[in-house]
Write a structure and sequence with these properties.
The protein is an all-beta fold. It contains one helix and 28 strands.
Length: 387
């Protein structure tokens, strides 16, 4: 059966905005977009061209000027890119920040701003799209709230579908005096949305209506982590039966069994992301699985490393396999490329991105190259180039 280029393109879109489970991707030419913080000289979103078969990475320069695009997400059709503008000096402190939509030029990789709308909260630090591409989900850290915003056929951001304000606090006084939503993304079946709230030590679960984009509280409405864990991000296992949540504040990963029918979570295991004997300050940042569900990766900021866990597919439990230095400071974000052969780690405070080769079957990481021209890299996504 002959597969059209358009069908292939739709099947290959990869975004590092959510779950970190990567689909098969035979394409061999990608735009790589890097989001940054712009307070210290960065312009916004930078672009590269990447060939997984050779590992060749070509700098394309600034793709779009936009204030602190700290998290990026790509539309399933590959035509649009979205950014959370986490901060903007032009916006008064305490006022709602913005999220922005861009059109992707498939010939040049340049981004054209379509529009910007309110994030319906302060400090938008994470965004993702639902499976249909009709709704953008936003987690607002400073205000401790989440929102869902509708997306038009032209890629522009439209009306808000729902906003939910989190309430409560937890035990770490300087970080958990109130809610801090740090992640939101849909379940594999697009029926639920899960939000990690660092301030509450909870993963909140919402029923999600793809037709309207609305979020409503599930029953049960949340799953609790250990006090002081500070859940930051989460990822599903490829089979969708387990959820892994990294604790930013206590440097742990908690494994949950996931009931897809009820949208409920049951804690199974909590393990440290740090090697035994480490005494320094650390916080975790990003978490992803490989596409086969054999390995889980988590970044440590402070220890400045990627820890690799092997996954028991039957039980979902984790066992530390190795810890690898990222070659820079503060790996706020990392992602596997669509082929699964490379891992890109953005070292925010050393202004570098380290590209690792990932050994098939073992997930051994070896440095392939380092990008030294990326100011405060904090988000990375891949888009197949349309030929």
């Amino acid at each position: 059966m002959k597969i059209s280029r358009r069908t292939l393109l739709l099947a290959l879109i990869v975004s590092a905005a959510g779950w970190g489970v990567l689909a098969q991707a035979p394409a061999d030419d990608y735009f790589v977009y890097l989001g940054t913080y712009t307070a210290h000289g960065a312009k916004g979103i930078y672009a590269y061209r990447f060939q997984p078969s050779t590992g060749k990475l070509t700098t394309m320069g600034a793709a779009a000027a936009t204030p602190s695009p700290s998290f990026l997400a790509v539309h399933p059709n590959g035509r649009f890119l979205y950014a959370a503008n986490e901060s903007d000096p032009a916006i008064p402190r305490g006022k709602d920040n913005m999220v922005s939509a861009f059109a992707i030029d498939q010939a040049t990789g340049k981004l054209t701003l379509l529009n910007s709308v309110s994030a319906h909260g302060v400090g938008p630090c994470h965004i993702s799209l639902d499976k249909t591409g009709n709704t953008l989900l936003v987690a607002n850290y400073d205000s401790g709230s989440v929102a869902s915003v509708r997306i038009g056929a032209d890629g522009k951001l439209g009306d808000v579908a729902s906003v939910d304000q989190h309430h409560g606090k937890s035990v770490v006084q300087d970080r958990q005096a109130g809610p801090h939503a740090h992640f939101i993304g849909v379940s594999p079946d697009n029926h639920f949305a899960l939000s990690a709230d660092l301030g509450l030590d909870q993963v909140l679960v919402y029923k999600f209506d793809p037709a309207s984009g609305r979020l409503t509280a599930n029953a049960p409405p949340f799953a609790a982590l250990k006090p002081g864990a500070g859940p930051r991000h989460l990822t599903f296992s490829p089979a969708g039966n387990f959820v892994y949540v990294n604790g930013e504040l206590d440097s742990t990963v908690t494994t949950f069994a996931y009931d897809a029918k009820a949208g409920s979570l049951k804690a199974l295991q909590s393990v440290s992301t740090l090697p035994e004997g480490f005494k320094g300050t650390n916080s975790t940042a990003e978490i992803q699985t490989d596409r086969e569900g054999k390995f889980l990766f988590v970044s440590n900021r402070g220890h400045n490393s990627i820890v690799v866990f092997s996954i028991d597919k039957a039980s979902g439990t984790l066992k530390a396999a190795r810890t690898v230095p990222t070659g820079g400071k503060t790996p706020r974000f990392f992602t596997l490329d669509p082929s699964g052969k490379f891992l890109f780690a953005g070292n925010q405070d050393s202004n570098t991105v380290t590209v690792f080769r990932v050994e098939a079957g073992t997930a051994k990481l070896t440095v392939a190259q380092t990008l030294n021209d990326v100011p405060e890299a904090v988000s990375i996504v891949f888009v197949p180039v349309k030929h």
